[in-house]
Amino acid sequence: MLTSVESELLAKEIFDADPQIVHLGLIDLEGNVLLDQSSAASAPIEPDSDRIAFYNQLDVRRNSREHFDESYGKTDYVHIIREKMQQVVLYLPKITVYLTLEKSMTPTEVKSAAQKIKFLDSDIMKSGI
User: Fold this and answer.
1) CA 20 to 30 Å from 22, out of 10, 64, 78, 86?
2) Which domains does the chain have, with CATH numbers?
3) Sheet with strand 77-81: strands edge to edge
């Protein structure tokens, strides 16, 4: 599991991967919040109970998707387009990365951002995934 220092360093690398990332959450495989941070904030924030519940639901969804890995293949990421923003959930081997993105991003830009994050070549990411 990532330490809080490693989580903060990983968050910085993720925000550096694409300037259109607005918010991120790092969630362990048990649904625990490792980090919750806005790109506008210099430090992580303490998530409220609604956000914690949301992150726990992401863990439930991940487990549901993993049930079909053998039949359909693994889920790399999920891209959700909403009226006011876009969301991406990346499934890395040891953590789940939740992102909110600028609404103006194209699907190609979203895919590129997801791939950049997935393939971050750092000691931090290697220890976390």
Assistant:
1) 64
2) 4-121 (3.30.450.30)
3) 33-38, 21-28, 95-101, 86-91, 77-81
Q: How far apart are the first and last CA of the chain?
A: 9
Q: 31 is written with which tokens?
A: 């649904």
pLDDT tier at 119, thresholds 50, 70, 90? confident
| Encoded amino acid at 49, one letter | S
Joined tokens for residue 76: 């790399």
Q: Calculate mean pLDDT across residues 54-64.
A: 92
- Residue 129: which pLDDT band, with cuts at 50, 70 and 90? low
The enclosing H or E element of 77 equals: strand 77-81
Q: Which has the higher per-residue pLDDT, 129 or 86?
A: 86
Six token digits for residue 66: 């993993």
* Cα 27 from Cα 25, distance rounded (Å): 6
User: Within 10 A of 53 (CB to CB), how many other CB atoms are there?
Assistant: 11
